[in-house]
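Issue: copy button drops trailing tokens. Both records pasted manually instead:
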Amino acid sequence: MLRFGIDLGGTKIELCALDESEAVYRKRIATPAHDYDAIVDALAGLVTDAELALGRHGSVGICTPGALSRGSDTLKNSNTRCLNGRPLHRDLAARLGREIRLENDANCFALSEAVDGAGQGSPVVFGVILGTGVGGGIVVNGRCLVGCNAIAGEWGHIALPYLESNDLPAPSCYCGRFGCVETYLSGRGLREDHTRHTSEHFAADELAERAAAGDALGRASLERYADRLARALSIVINVVDPDVIVLGGGLSQIEALYALVPARWAKYVFSDAVATRMLPAVHGDASGVRGAAWLW
């Protein structure tokens, strides 16, 4: 079966064709980010061009920031604002003459890694994106768990649990609340925490490098981050009890986290032992298009 996955981002649109699990075609174009009709045209054109090149028709799935509103069946919470309130999947379906499936980027990431990535063969996979923001998606037996409000897995906007003195004052979040997981565990959260404790200014990747080289201040900041990540994931484990937690996004490349976090989460999880594994993503930046393709 030929499957087309499309990653609709704010600056670029990428299409990937999967024949079974092999990528047989790729194309990337700039996103006409302020023009809804132009986006629909661009998506339809990518699919048409791919089908002409391959001589075959395929299913179409789309990965995008934001989610479908259960009430209106239109997009919500997309950072490409012209998409909000618009029935993108229905408009594209009318253009291409077939059903279109659409999920947000965190769900597509989790699905990609569950089907043929780090979580392959595991019944329950929780996919985590740690980067500019903090997102999450849940896959159960190879299917995305979306939820009746289309927010399943959105752990970035729960409050960081088990607050300690060095977590305070709780940072403000763009959602209007204070102390959300995202404010601590995003790249900005790690950077600002280090500055608050040391007056030094380093990007998250620089901090990780300094910690790995033996810098005491960098190591302390990384350990605070790891403990916060362990606390936040302990809530996920208590509620969802995933077999595998897969990390993606820029901060997932900090190798030390894969030892530091599991060593800490046992004291927060309501179990005598924690069998959940935490692994880096296999497909990395390709998880968006691959996950979109696997929606079929």
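Record 2 (pasted manually too):
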Amino acid sequence: MKKKLVVLSGAGISAESGVKTFRDSDGLWEGHNVLEVATPEGFRKNPKLVLDFYNERRRQLSKVNPNAGHLILAALETHFDVEIITQNVDNLHEKAGSTKILHLHGELLKARSTGNENHILDWETDLNLGDLDDKGYQLRPHIVWFGEDVPALEEAVSIVQNAAFLIIIGTSFQVYPAAGLMNFAPKNTPVFYIDPKPAHIYDSTNKIKIIAATATKGMQIVQEELMKMF
């Protein structure tokens, strides 16, 4: 039986593929204040702006490809039961070939009804005002915005609780509740934390190995370490 390898991935792994991080150092996302394009209030105030913003993000997906970090994670399925919990809304893990992916913050290639949050549709083209569900409700991006609940959080906690190994890659530990997920891993679970500028993490057990590297370089190191334990 394969051991469970759980991965928590953030914007850093997609950045190497050319996807802009969710929020740049100036507090903007692709030149927009996040309050304008990533909150329910922003959508109510200017739905066209928000729809156009995510339409552009969706179009960008056809221009980017998985990097070595994504590909190594997919390859590790040969030896481990790999489950990826990602904060990213892109489809690069899917493109790389990973098969078990939980999107905490939604997906660009899906839309959902403004009248029923559980009515979710696959959506690969532009989403415009006037695109309605079968009950006449406007469709919106299937993205978890600031101030909204994270429906997949309970499932994510359950996955982490069963981890034999945990990889944290490309996340700043600034976005909650995702940042607290590592605390649900079983005691003494080996944890690999990959980031070029790793955040400070309190670790009383010394079980966390910090790898100050890019996603691609870091995953090469972790892959070698894991194969020694295999």
